[in-house]
Amino acid sequence: MDAEGVPVSAATGGSDAADVVVIGSGIVGLGAAYAAIRRGLSVIVVDRTDAPVGATIRNFGHLCIGAQEGDARRYADASRELWLRLSRDARFWLRESGTLVAARRADELAVLEQAAAGGGIRMLETDELLRLAPLRSDGLVGGAHIETDLQTDPRTAAAAIVRHLARSGVEFRFRTAVTAVGTGRVDTTRGPLTAGSIVVAVNHDLDQLLPEIAERTGVVRCTLDMLRAAVTFRHPLSAPLLTGWSLVRYGRFADTSSAVALRERLHAERPDLAALDLNQMYTQLPDGTLIIGDSHATGVSPAPFQPEAAFAAFLSEADALFDMPTPRVLERWQGVYAKGPQEFLVEQVDEGVLALAATTGIGMTTGLGLAEENLTAAFGWTPAMEGTA
Ligand SMILES: Cc1cc2nc3c(=O)[nH]c(=O)nc-3n(C[C@H](O)[C@H](O)[C@H](O)COP(=O)(O)OP(=O)(O)OC[C@H]3O[C@@H](n4cnc5c(N)ncnc54)[C@H](O)[C@@H]3O)c2cc1C
Predict the structure, then answer these.
(1) 47, 54 in Cβ contact below 8 A?
(2) What predicted TM-score, i.e. pTM, was given to this entire model?
(3) Whose CA is nearest to atom 6 of ligand 1?
(4) 25 CA distance to ligand 1 centroid (A)?
């Protein structure tokens, strides 16, 4: 039982059958459970850990909606509504902050202006950006505000959603690993479960549970290094903050023609940061600490060793960008997500068995919508089924 008397860590108990069994209690699995329970279906969520501790709590909490395109934008827009509703109902911190982008060179401004022409992104003069973010003024040439974006605290959001879903009737089987899955049946380390519909939402562990699908679709692992620091800002950072390195990463910016020159310049000037596959970005948590990241390494089995060069680069780049005394590092960690040639994996594994994953680093932004849309389509759910949970 948690402090509110909800059995969030129940390992056993209840029925061994449900309308829907979800494997994985990260944001994609929680999105699947939320979609199912709102349609009046019985739901069991199975996870081998005793609470969500995967990518869903290790990220920036940046819901980067307005920088997406195509399927990602559709899932992100759907997720936005679900995030807002869940934060109200499950009572966790979330703010309609938008996202700030700091431009320090003309080629960064060019990318922002090109993307802003599509709407939803407002260009900022340097003065306004300095009021919204405690940056150094030297070198800053302007910026932008992505208006539709949200920010949450990943460390509290997932646990609050678990409690809310448990109160709504979802049964959680924690400390229970799934060993095999097929039509109507989920084998676990605590015995089999049966279900009409099964959702596999295990992120990068797809390569262990369903290795043939991971191999066929080219899904491997991406490891990321991050840190959290105590900072002294002259005023708070009002929204997640992106830099030029983010502009060559997120679809809506990276697909502009101006991004080609920006990428070339960044890689030529800073091969050390390019080698880290840096996405230089920041979010400030409600307690005032700053999440700083992040580096990326991709492979079937990326090395577990966290190069100190990455953390040194995070701190020196933060020092060059923000007007602040040297921050004090509180924590360092590694996160992992599934990485594939496409942005999403949506695979029918067997009759009534669906595997879902965000296969790039935007699963917090898109995961709820990814689950909502694909479960509805795969399991033939109708709008009339939706209730009030
Ligand atoms: C460092 C970092 C920063 C990121 N920043 C952002 C960001 O700011 N914005 C954004 O949109 N996205 C971000 N992402 C990506 C995002 O966090 C992920 O895409 C998303 O959280 C994936 O959710 P998930 O539910 O698929 O996976 P997870 O949260 O990893 O959950 C998968 C769950 O499956 C369970 N599981 C696995 N195998 C089994 C099994 N056999 N049996 C039972 N349980 C099993 C695991 O225990 C785990 O709890 C970031 C990711 C990382 C790592």
Answers:
(1) no
(2) 0.96
(3) 59
(4) 9
